[in-house]
Here is the input.
Amino acid sequence: MSFTLFLGIAFCGIVSCALLSYILISYNSRHLFDSSKNRLADYVNGLSYDIERTGFPLGSDTTVSDDLFLLAENYSGRVMVLDNSLRVIFDSYRTKNGLTIVAPEILEGCRNNTHFSCDEEKQTATYVKLISSRSANGENLVFYIRYDVSNELIRSQTSRRYIMLIALSLCIIIFTLAIVLSVAFTRPLRRITRQLESIGNGKIDERLTVHANREVSEMSDSVNRILERSHEMEENRQNFVSDVSHELKTPMTSMKILADALLMSGEELPDMVREFLTDINSEIDRENHIISDLLALARMDRKTDTIHYERTHINETLDVILNRVAPLAESKEVEVVCESYRDIYAEVDEPKIITAITNLVENAILYNRPNGSVYVTLNANMTYFFVTIRDTGYGIAESEIAHIFERFYRVDKDRSRETGGTGLGLAITKEVVNAHGGQIKVYSKINEGTTFSVRIPLAKPVRNGGKG
Amino acid sequence: MTRRYIGKIVSIALVFILAITSLYGCTQTTTPTPSADERYPVFYYALNSDATSMFRVEYAFQSSSTEAKIAELVQLLMVNDKDNERYSVVPKNLRIEDWSLDADGNLTVSFNGEYSQMNAAREAVLRAGVVLTLTVVPDVKSVTFKVNGEPLTQHQEPVGPMTATMFANRIGEPTQVLNVKLYFVNSAKNGLVMVNRMVFPDDYEPMERYIVEYMIAGPTESEISSIKKNDPKPMAAIPSKTRINKVITKNTTCYVDLSSEFQNSDKTIPPKFILHSLADTLIRNIEYIDGVVFTVDGKKLSTYRGEEVPSVYRSADMLIQ
Here is the structure.
């Protein structure tokens, strides 16, 4: 975008510069000899009066020929006068006297009354003019002068050089201006894109803060209004989910107690009833699990449950998680390998981090092949610590990667139900990571496995700017 | 891929061929297939479409006899070749009715009555074209025009035989070979020695300027070696770095304005020889000059290397050996 803009401005500027200098140069060269031409035309006019006064041929009149010699001297050139049959009657070089000259400049001068040409190589100009007879039966004469125009040519070259120099500096200015303008125009747009990306990555509370100029400011405001509106809708939805979950939780608890009581009553129940009751009990457990997850999510959404930052030894936290998933890994015959590159301490909400990472490691175990592996690595730089969880499972199709963090989204519907997931695990993980100011990324290849990469700041993020 | 390259090569080749052929079409010369034994390029003259330029067209004679060559050229003079933008110097309706060559090499060309319809300038072009074309034949020395059987007249005077030297087709082009006599200072430094030189100067500068240029340049190697062994040799006396500011002739006096380097000449050469060598060469070669005035950078030269200088130089025979 900025390059196109730059090219556009630079192209327009340079083309108009070139056009302008072309017009100036051609105007300059067209009118370069005007003054000498006009002076010579006046001279020829005066000469025709002299010829009328002194008669023809003018060779007998020394004042006229003296005049012509003087003219030739003044113009550092050659003057000739030809009669109407193109015979030379005066030549300041005296070599062509009496010759008939049918040179193109003479013929053209006869035909068009006047001729002018410039020989830049020899630095001379040729001016030919027909001297019309003032008497009715008199003969026309042809006046010819070839004179030195080196001064005019030098002047023209100098002015041409000046024009080129000005055009060149204008080009440079336009070039610089093009760079500055294109950067100035596209910088706010780039910032908007960055902010929108950040909002798209989950920081839905952030708003556009770019107000570079009126248009961009208006656009930011419009986008902010849309964001505000969708934020309101999202809040309503979260409230609804939270309320419904709460309302469901109580009857579910009662149902669970009742089912448990029935099962524990000691009375002999028919086999079918016992079996059905057991099923009901486990379904109630599952439902409870879902409702708990939903409530957890809802709490995080509504910010009622703020993050309690505490300095935590992340390596220990990871050990806790791995110990917790060890029985599951064993039952699924999946090997879990952990690699920590250094001791890492970070300010995080430990229980929430445990939940988030446990979800990822559990998923890696559950959606693995038998005898598969899960590799967990822990590393850090100056500002972030990184946890990557790589499995050797079935992988996720590219089209589905975008949806895996959505609530209740299941990649493989059948297998998910088998594994007993709620479909909320990854949504919770993402919420936790986002709440810590971190980022989560997924790379996956079908039949090769999936890698989740989590990046979380080592220190509690300082929020500044942005609304909310 | 290969096919695309072949296509590119073919199209480049086509453009190249097109360019070559179109450029070939621009050339003004034609070379008819020679059939006769004697072939050497000559020229005939033709006009452009609006008769403002007369130019030469190369041609090779088909026949060898003088009469047949003249007939070929008379034929060519009447041809209008519109495709090549070559038009006859003979106007429409005017015809060359007859021609005859006498023993002195004067060719008489007879025109019909249309001749009087031309204006003076057009007639000049016709005369130049016909005379310059027909005098190409080695045996034709001059051309005389007849109109309706009567010799051509102008201002009630007969025009008479016309030769090629009476016409010029271009101003500035060298017209004829000239023999100039250059008087250089001799190597004994006690006089001047004359050198004959054939020159073919163009006409862009007056002859006097060319002569001053020759004098500054000095004698050529062959001119020096052509002098007999014991005779004094010619030498360059004017410093070679001397520039010519101006050479003009007023009435019969030539004014030579040189740059100041002129004064740094060889101290062993007496000043009068240097100044006379230049002045005499100008006076003896150019008939309208009988005196020379020297100036240096526009200032009159009153003394040259301490020696008094006359205001106008005249020819000095006693210096020449």
Q: What stands out?
A: Chain A has twelve helices and 13 strands. Residues 34-148 of chain A form a domain with the Beta-Lactamase fold (CATH 3.30.450.20).
